[in-house]
Amino acid sequence: MPIRLRITTFFTGLFILLLGIVCLSIYYFSSLSRLQNVKTRLTNRAITTDRMLTHDTTINKEMMYRIDSLTAMALKRKAVQVYNADGQLDYFYADASGDSMPVSPAVLAAARRSGTFYFNQGTREAIAYSDRTLKNGIVIVSVGVDEDGRENIDQLRSILISSFIGGILLAFIGGYIFSAGLLKPVRRIANEVKEISAHNLERRIPAGDTHDEWHLLASTLNQLLDRLKDSFELQRRFISNASHELSTPLTLISSQLEIYLQRDRSEAAYREAMTQILKDVQHMNSLVQALLQFATASRNPGGLQIGPVRIDEVLMQLPGEVHARDTQHSVSLDFGTLPEEDDKLLVLGNETLIFTAIMNIVSNACKYSGDHHADVSLLVEDHHFIIRVKDQGIGIDEQEINNIFQPFYRIEQEHNSKGFGLGLSLATRIIKLHKGDITVSSTPGVGTVFTIVLPGGEV
């Protein structure tokens, strides 16, 4: 069912419920008021008759009959029936001769017990009244037909039914028009989104100045488009740079093979060529491994093996690993004062990825430091681990700091050094994957400090 029709149906259903309650309440209380009015009239007539016949000795039955015949009431088909203590009809008056109303002994008994008792026969309504203070057993039955009251109630019922049906139609039409206006921003946003493609990510959805839920939706979609644009741009640069990095050694290998296959050469020449090709293949293999690590670090945490990792044990692996990769590189560790409880040194994450991220930063620090040395410190603060990697290297210009975490980006001083420009980007992806943060401060010619913050306890 279309959402517009769903909104209209819900709006109409709610209106039907409220209007139905109002109409039923009006009809119920109006009927109750009519009945109470009839009871009051009939009771007053019965009381008047009782007082004239039983309290005033000057009024006999003939005079009472004349009084009844001259008394005007709004009720039709009036009748007064008086029963003595034995249940015998002692006095009777009716507008139409013989138009009496049957009264059972049970009705008379009920009137004597409670004073008044209401009963009806079709449209004729009656009150049986007995003055319990006298205890004479006399019961006066006052009868009448409330034609005007019932006609008014019938008219009211017709008006309410017509109003109810008309209200339903108006509610449906109003709801349909209202839902159209309500969903108009959605259609506008949908039309704008249809015009946006991978080749047109610069376009944005007008959010307007209303600051309502539609403004929030448009703003959220615009933020999504900003992220998609950044992702597409990052992917484009990544593919371009990766293709360039892979094509360079392939071109060298292909060129060398073509040259050496043009004519016969000595064994030494072939060996030299194979040695160079091997270096190029190793270079390509290193790049492929780096790309695989980068892809792994870009996954959702749900697809990785997550477990408790002691951050101090990860850092203690650094000196040996750094020295194994390059004997000229060295690392010093400073743990300061650590908590005695083991569970306060745990990070929930993937140990291999965490070590890879920190190792990449430390390797860069050693590579670009004059003494090829890096200082690594660990501080535990507010359930967070703060890891600082400091070097005394060439430093980074302020305008390049925001770019160093981009894949394949290398600052001007690094162009003559080995590497692919993936280390810091890989480290950033891994740290973000573990809900951490990484920042850098640097002074050219003095050194650089990388600060990694990881949450303790859980990712």
From TrEMBL:
Regions crossing the membrane: 7-29, 159-178
Entry-linked InterPro entries: HAMP_dom (IPR003660), HATPase_C_sf (IPR036890), HATPase_dom (IPR003594), His_kinase_dom (IPR005467), HisK_dim/P_dom (IPR003661), HisK_dim/P_sf (IPR036097), Sig_transdc_His_kin-like_C (IPR004358), TCS_sensor_his_kinase (IPR050428)
GO molecular function: kinase activity
Alphabetically ordered keywords of this record: Kinase, Membrane, Phosphoprotein, Transferase, Transmembrane, Transmembrane helix, Two-component regulatory system
Ranges for domain Histidine kinase: 241-458
Catalytic activity as recorded in UniProt: ATP + protein L-histidine = ADP + protein N-phospho-L-histidine
Enzyme Commission number, as recorded: 2.7.13.3
Cellular location(s): Membrane
Domain called HAMP: residue spans: 180-233
Main location: membrane
PROSITE patterns hit by this protein: HAMP, HIS_KIN
Identification of the protein by name: histidine kinase
